[in-house]
Amino acid sequence: xxALGPAPAPRRSAQRTxxxxxxxxxxxAWMVAFFVISMVIVVLLPFGRTTNDGFPVFSTSLDNYRAxxxxxxxxxxxxxxxxxxxxxxxxxxxxxxxxxxxxLHGGRYKNALIAAVVVPFFAxxxxxxxxxxxxxxxxxxxxxxxxxxxxxxxxxxxxxxxAVIGGLVYGFVVFMILPxxxxxxRLDVSLVEAGKDLYHGPVRTFFSVTLPATxxxxxxxxxxxxxxxxxxxxxxxxxxxxxxxxxGNLVQQQFNEGQNWPLGSAMTVGMMAALTALMVAxxxxxxxxxxxx
Amino acid sequence: xTATTTASKPLSRAGTPSVSLRGLTKVFGGTTVVDHLDLDVxxxxxxxxxGPSGCxxxxxxxxxxxxxxxxxxxxxxxxxxVTSTPPHKRDVNTVFQSYALFEHLDVRxxxxxxxxRKGLDRRTLDRRxxxxxxxxxxxxxxxxKPSRLSGGQRQRVALARALINEPKVLxxxxxxxxxxxxxxxxxxxxxxxxxxxxxxxxxFVTHDQDExxxxxxxxxxxNNGVLEQCGTPEDVYERPTSVFAAGFIGTSNLMSGVWxxxxxxxxxxxxxxxxxxxxxxxxxxxxxxVRPEKIWLGDHTDEMFRLPGTIEATTYHGxxxxxxxxxxxxxxxxxxxxxxxxxxxxxRWDPGDRVEVGWLPEHTVVLT
Amino acid sequence: xxxxxxxxxxxxxxxxxxxxxxxxYLPILAVTLFSFNDKKSLSAFSGFSLRxxxxxxxxQALLESLVASLQIAxxxxxxxxxxGTMLAxxxxxxxxxxxxxxxxxxxxxxxxxxxxxGVAALLLFTGIGLKLSxxxxxxxxxxxxxxxxxxxxxxxxAGLSTEVEEAARDLGCTPWQALRLVTLPAxxxxxxxxxxxxxxxxxxxxxxxxFTTGVDPQPLPVRVYSSIRFGVSPAINAIGTLMLLVSAxxxxxxxxxxxxxxxxxxxxxxxxxxERR
Amino acid sequence: xxxxxxxxxxxxTRRGLLTGGLAVGASLSLPxxxxxxxxxxxxxxxxxxxxxxxxxxxxYFNWADYLAPSVLKGFQKEYGVxxxxxxxxxxxxxxxxxxxxxxxxxxxxxxxxxxxxxxxxKLRAIEPDxxxxxxxxxxxGSYFNDPWYDEGSQVSVPFTVYKTGIGWRTDxxxxxxxxxxxxxxxxxxxxxFTLDDQDExxxxxxxxxxxxxxxxxxxxxxxxxKLLISQKQYLRAYSSDDINNMVAGDAWxxxxxxxxxxxxxxxxxEDPDAFDFxxxxxxxxxxxxxxxxxxxxxxxxxxxxxIDYLLRPENAxxxxxxxxxxxxxxxxxxxxxxxxxxxPACNVEVSDxxxxxxxxxxxxxxxxxxxxxxxxxxxx
Lengths: 293, 368, 277, 380
Fold this sequence. Notes:
The complex is a heterotetramer of chains A (293), B (368), C (277) and D (380). Chain A has 293 residues and is mostly helical. Chain A has a single domain (78-292), classed as MetI-like fold, CATH 1.10.3720. Chain A contains 14 helices and 2 strands; from the N terminus they run αββααααααααααααα. Chain A has a two-stranded antiparallel sheet.
């Protein structure tokens, strides 16, 4: 899915030596030690319990996995998925026009513009969120501006579902912009021009030529936004309200205040299971579509 | 295979062969790419492996260089079996098709790379590099990065980088393929001159028959992993021994027929007299080939074999004119005529003209 | 050949782009502006002052967090460069089913939400009795960053002819020497780009650091997070401005480097992981 | 700092995991594998007190920004040591870091956590005779000579005291009733905040229902859960950033800590009269924080010196003027009464501590039942 980078088979095979095997062995051992084994622990710990003094220990209890099957959690799970989906849709609505404008109308400033889009995303997410929190608060700069210009009595932006989703879009929209931009970059402009002759009008051309030609960028972006959005806990923590808890918050709470690591691990596993199921469904859908066209 | 018999015939310049291949075989995932190849290349020889792409010539070269392990058979360099020797210990060097220059080093760094590996002292190294650059006429480019050089210059750097190690054999993998036509012709001449000057055995891989014929002392024609024919350029051109060799080098009028009373019957009305061919018996199906430029449309002599025909098409090619002459239903010959000074446009034949084609019997080559 | 642009400007698209830029840069401007404010307010600028930078310079804990984050980012960058490059070379050269499985596993961290990776790392380190500290943060960050390096280096390797390495071996190099003298120098631009990217990512990473940090001075983002939840010292504005500056410089440097040298990978593929076809 | 090559863990871990995951009820004890162990022993006597003398830099573990920087700076200057600071954002987080084996010289637990840490043998004794300023807190008749959380005051020295109540905007809300029901105030609907803190939130509901703040009875917890969920329609968010929520205008009514309110009103607000605080009549949770030295502290001597330094009345006053929390240091208390003069509800008298609304140490089962309720409240 997020298969990275081109990896064509080499034209010829190099003569076999121990060197390549050794090169592969060290990082593989690392990944097994620090990633694979850690994931196994995550799956096994839910069978455990917490001791009197608050230590998680292995055991054979099913309670923690069973605890996941709870109306409140299921509702929260649905809510998280909805937020993540809304994030994907909003990101696409913002990212596509932006990528389009830069890729096809950016001229010689194209690279500078796309760099300008990317740069903020590597500059402290937390600080930017906190700045927004201050700017959007009821007495903040934005609301003062609204009141000052006579545009009503100000808006309670913060602590709403939309604030959380806005925070998620803000955090991850770049992962939507870049793949779309990349696919627009590869788009053959003459196709669009031909489309204009054929379909008349830029709108119909867009929907019958440009959009289909760049759909893989859109798919890739959707996945790259959905995954981190579903696991995020910072946005709901900083911008959310009383009813905007997400799965990430739930997990984080078990590990920090809840002091119930086995339950937290069970929630983590639940989250991964949900993600895997959604990913499989998504892959099925996109590959079927790819085959049909 | 007929090739094996011709390939290993004793060499006039003799001595130990520079490169010997014995039953060399390479199988890739069930496909035999090189099939029991036997070959000897003499010291100081300019030897070409010629064949269409995918015929196994590059694989053969890579097995000689050591980049690829033979499935079977052995490679000898200077009489020594190097089949299981890693590339860096083989006394051969390669000029790659892409040149494979080291972009992070300048020209001198590239050329001196091999010698530095051998641990030569600085002064000797500098002198040898300068000499080599002199030889390939790049003395003033020593400090340039390869990316700033033209195609021809890059090619010469690649050559210098390999030659400076004075290998027993220099392997060249289509080194001229990336150059444009004019430059390629110039480089062919230079390469040949260079080879004479340094006296190193060149094993040259190409799919370009002109290149192979004009530069080589000997040419081996490969097809589907086997040697079709091996000999001097004249041998392989004038006396091809297989249908493939005749078809691949130059153009030939190839006709198949049945051997009958010293002639090959290629059509009910056409029996072409042919020299006796060993191993063929009365009634066998054989092929005959005649080069288009050997066929005359007039000025025949008595020794020539002659046939009536009709001009089907005339194509003007500048230095030559090419005719298609029908000699029987469904059977036409290509004839190439020089446009000599005395000829004018109206002297050419036009479609529909009735003509007589003729050639000397020794120009009829029988193939099996 | 320069690509032609379409003549007519789509006004909606341009408008959305302008809004996006405002959205992205407004808070950055606010943070920067109010870091020079002489009062503790984020809504009214009352006068220019360097007092928060002065506070920052004397806030030992915050400075130690800054140093800790720089150390973490440096070590994680070096570690993931070494391991990621080894992995890329190994995957590129060992072409077997086993190699493909390994390749897929190493990319998993890229599609795993960070909170999962963080929880897993916490459980592992606690389970093996490794005390949470800057070391554990570095270990977790390396594990997370290897995939980025591998993706970028593989992109560059794919664009690199295998003949170059063969040429080196032909000229007397052992496989190891060929790697060291020829392949690695050719990878330098990709390594620089990957290094800068990983540095910026790790320097700014909160979630993994949050789960794996211990007694040592906390990484800067974790400290910032605590401050945000429990009331902010405006020195955060100052450090925020500095963090923004550092990250922006690093990223611009990485993008420029990759654009100049990274023929195999474009800066985009680097961040998006490229697009499959 | 350097990622250590060749870790010694994998074998142990893998075997540990297999046995841990598969063994039926068997608790195999493999040394080094944290998830396979018996419950820790409890009620061990604390190791003896260290002498108050500098024995290295101070590894300090506290809430962020919970001491006046000038006081910290003064300590470093006076004794020529560095203070290496780490922060936690919850008691559970603090406990987890301690449990994970991190070594700190001084921590600042809330009362019941002192009790827990002491019970688990995680704290070192603090001998008052070692402290020159001990009489500032351990004078004759002082509540702190024998507090409920630390019998005989063996392992802790009092740090701050505070209570939890309701802060509100007088310019926005006029109908406050002096009850916890004010967190259901119709005028402030959608602008009410409840502290994002399990104990405080459950206690507030329990007090309103007339239950013990530490209740873990399932039936009572069920009622508390319903009550808290019913509050959500009035609520804007759960947040412990009470000061900023009030300052930024997002909150009109805020469940908040007395010290935070005082800081907000006296230290930040442009118009102090726009803010007021009440201690609801159903009763309010009273709490205290303490200094404590973990058993495995590397520099307990420096920690003792540090505690002594903070007990100096002039330093307590500096801290109070920075934090707006009262320090029960005898000669500093008048200064605090002055500070809280305008809002007496914020003042905490030591006598307030003789009160049953304190958060007590509960058993693991009880804690988990309460945690489950709190998780459900936040999740729904």
